[in-house]
Write a structure and sequence with these properties.
By secondary structure, the chain is an alpha+beta fold. Helix content is 26%, strand content 26%. The protein has a domain of 39 residues: 3-Layer(aba) Sandwich (YefM-like fold), CATH 3.40.1620. Strands 1-2-3 form a three-stranded mixed β-sheet. It starts with a strand and ends in an 18-residue tail after the last strand.
Length: 58
C-alpha cells in the first residue's frame, strides 16, 4: 500500500485510479500531522450472488 497526502492525491487523481485499476491500494493522509483518513482499494465483484426466489413462503 502506498500513501499520499490529500493535495498530492488530488493532483494525481487520474494516475492513482489507473494504478488502483491494476491492483494497487492507496492510503490518503490529511492535515499537518499527515494522519490516515481514507483508503482506496480495487473493487472486487463477489461471485456469490444467488438467484432469489419470489413467491409465497412455505
Amino acid at each position: 500500500m502506498k500513501t499520499l497526502p490529500a493535495g498530492e492525491f488530488k493532483a494525481q487523481f487520474s494516475e492513482v485510479l489507473e494504478k488502483v485499476k491494476h491492483g494497487e491500494s492507496f492510503g490518503i493522509l490529511y492535515g499537518r500531522k499527515k494522519r490516515p483518513v481514507a483508503m482506496i482499494v480495487p473493487y472486487v465483484e463477489s461471485g456469490c450472488e444467488k438467484e432469489r426466489k419470489i413467491g409465497v413462503i412455505r
